[in-house]
Amino acid sequence: MKSKRHLSAILIAFVCVATLTAFIAAPSNNKGYSIGDTAASINLLNVDGTMVSYSDYPNANGFIVIFTCNTCPYAVASEDRINALDAEFKPKGYPVIAINPNDPELQPADTYELMQEKAEEKNFTFPYLYDKTNTVYAQYGATKTPHVYILDKKQSGKLIVEYIGAIDDNVRDGDNVKERFAANAVNELLAGKEVTVKETRAIGCSVKQAK
């Protein structure tokens, strides 16, 4: 009996490690930012009608940049978690900046007007930006919604990419998350440590853009 329990414990541990490995063993191969790159400035239209740039946050220590949208089920399932990330980390100097990378001509439910409706409906506490030029997502290398990039502001003022990937290890079910990848990365930066898990696999819908 004891050996069976021991075997069961080993199998459970193996499944947990395998699940985590499925996320962290697949760094992005797409063109765009890599860990350690300097992120360029942005200047995008927010749902409140204002233009938003990183320079609008002079006291920020960095940013949690999330490419997301109105329509993808994975993005919709992440909305409350994105609000929660902003509530947790904005007071600590790492606000969320959300950017919709989808071309509304290909995804009509991702128009600017419907983004405004979504932000009001879900009480977004963060900027929800419209990438009218359809270029910022490519600059970052975002391929999914949601897709997270954590930027850390150095003494030089440069914003350095410190994490790329998923919000956590259960994009479908926020109630059963075991590893909070994005939150863990920010907490390590706040503690003055190097980010342990720098890249994970972003799981979601493909960005809707003309090829």
Q: How many structural domains does the protein architecture include?
A: 1
Rg calc:
18 Å
CATH topology-level name: Glutaredoxin
- Specify the biggest β-sheet: 7 strands, mixed
Helix-strand sequence: HEEEHEHEHEEEHE
CATH architecture: 3-Layer(aba) Sandwich
Helices, by number, come to 5
Low-pLDDT residue spans = 1-29
Rough shape?
Answer: globular
Q: Structural class per helix/strand content? A: alpha+beta
Strand-residue fraction?
15-25%
Q: Helix share of residues?
A: 25-40%
CATH domain class: Alpha Beta
Strand order of the largest sheet: 2-1-5-4-3-7-8
The chain-level mean pLDDT equals 88
Secondary structure elements and pairings:
Layout: H1 2-24, E1 44-46, E2 51-52, E3 62-67, H2 73-89, E4 96-100, H3 112-121, E5 128-130, H4 136-140, E6 144-145, E7 147-153, E8 159-165, H5 181-190, E9 205-206
Parallel strand pairs: 3-4, 4-5
Antiparallel strand pairs: 1-2, 1-5, 3-7, 6-9, 7-8
Which keywords apply here?
alpha+beta, two-stranded antiparallel ribbon, Glutaredoxin, 211 residues, 31% helix
